[in-house]
Amino acid sequence: MILDAFLIRAALAGVGVAVAAAPMGCFVVWRRMAYFGDATAHAAILGVALALALSWSVFFGALVVALLMAVAVSGLGNRGLAMDTLLGVLAHSALAFGLVAASFLTGARLDLMAYLFGDILAVGWGDVAVIWGGALAVLALIGWRWSPLLLSTLNGDLAQAAGIDPRREQLVLTLSLALVVAVAIKVVGVLLIGALLVIPAATARPFARTPEGMAILATAIGAFAALAGLAAAFRFDTPTGPTIVCVAAGCFALATVVNALGRAVGGGSET
Amino acid sequence: MSLISLRGVDVRIGGRTVLQGIDMDVARGEIVTIVGPNGSGKSTLLRVLVGALKPHAGRVRRAGGLRIGYVPQSLHIDATLPITVARFLGLPNRVGRDALAAALAQAGLPDLGTRQMADLSGGQFQRVLLARAILDKPDLLLLDEATQGLDQRGSASFYQQIEEVRRDIGCGILMVSHELHVVMSASDRVICLNGHICCEGHPEVVASAPEYRALFGTGTKGALALYRHEHDHGHDCSHAHDHGGTL
Prior knowledge:
The structure holds two protein chains of two kinds.
Chain A: H1 2-30, H2 34-54, H3 58-77, H4 83-104, H5 112-117, H6 125-144, H7 146-154, H8 156-161, H9 166-188, H10 193-204, H11 211-236, H12 240-266
Chain B: E1 2-13, E2 16-27, E3 31-35, H1 42-50, E4 57-62, E5 68-71, H2 85-89, H3 97-106, H4 122-134, E6 140-144, H5 152-169, E7 172-176, H6 180-186, E8 189-193, E9 197-201, H7 203-208, H8 210-216, H9 219-233
Parallel strand pairs in B: 3-7, 3-8, 5-6, 6-7
Antiparallel strand pairs in B: 1-2, 1-4, 8-9
Helix pairs in contact in B: 3-4, 6-9
């Protein structure tokens, strides 16, 4: 059945993106990089336009431009410019330039909405393979550098004293972030990638006692949001990417209420 | 033989020379304290020793296989990051339960392994940082104003703990401190820093040096008086609340 096949592909794509985005999202939250994630994601639309103009694959174009953006931002940030201002300038400029660049391409070649908000129902088996390849690469990268990344996140000088170069770890995160963005474009689009990074991690926070616990829980929440969002979008005929984010936001609201109630009742030893 | 030695080290940050012509050595088993006014480059010097900053000129030589334990000036753990004391101590390398409890005990703490870092009191937090720094049996322990935020009693007992750590591990200790009166009694050697090394030597020698007096002004008297007082009478409590005038 054709119906089943495209739903299965969509489900696999959604879960793949959630699996890559959630652990990365934990670092985004811990390091207060939410804006950084947005800037990188917004820049990817420029990569999409570039890829279509040059007949590259969209994944590759998005990856390259997202990576350039991320490296540029971390480089400039290290020079002591005010980070939020810098990101505000870069994120929105990149988006604007991307949209202008896209307008030069003929409409037949570029359905802009699909890249701004994703089009998970249109993913093919090739896309699923790229998404899972990227997701597994992100997991491998973050898993491999997990402890050094955590220590660098806590304090760069502590990491240095333990023989870890925090700048190298920053680069690992930058590369992972670009990969997540490139992988997620087809599923949720550049405007909503930030939500998939931050919301599952923020939802998991009150229930976790260790960083590992938070990452695993965030992954589960992200995967649930992807599947439930897909089901809801199919049922109510709503746009899939935004519906996935709505489900994630609902989980966050629920978690916040449950946590507040738990504290009120039990006095709450968790913070 | 020195654990770490600096020769002619210059450090510039953003075009400004923060440290100039620094020569210094730390040997195994000695406690060296760096004092100096705000902005004198104390923390910068420590970051050079840790390896977080590359000097612009000069040489940093570390003994082969040197293990450094570092207690930073302040460590802010973001509220979004859940982490237990055990997990924190096990970064980057996981440690066994026994080694963990031993390090905590050495830092003067009960076994707090399962507690969240965010739930610790200021004193407990600093001691956990100390436990983390000594976990790996370092050759050199670097402390950057490790008693910041502790009250007089807390910091006095913290320094006592550091003496014990030196006895147990036999490491060299280099610390930065604002608490002149404690420093003067606890150190083997004091380095007075203000962009360059103004003077250095035995605490009492430094305290009477004109360079030191020029930097710390009237505070010198209090610190020195207290230092002498302690040594003349054998008291080891320090109730006087004199942080050295302008500091």
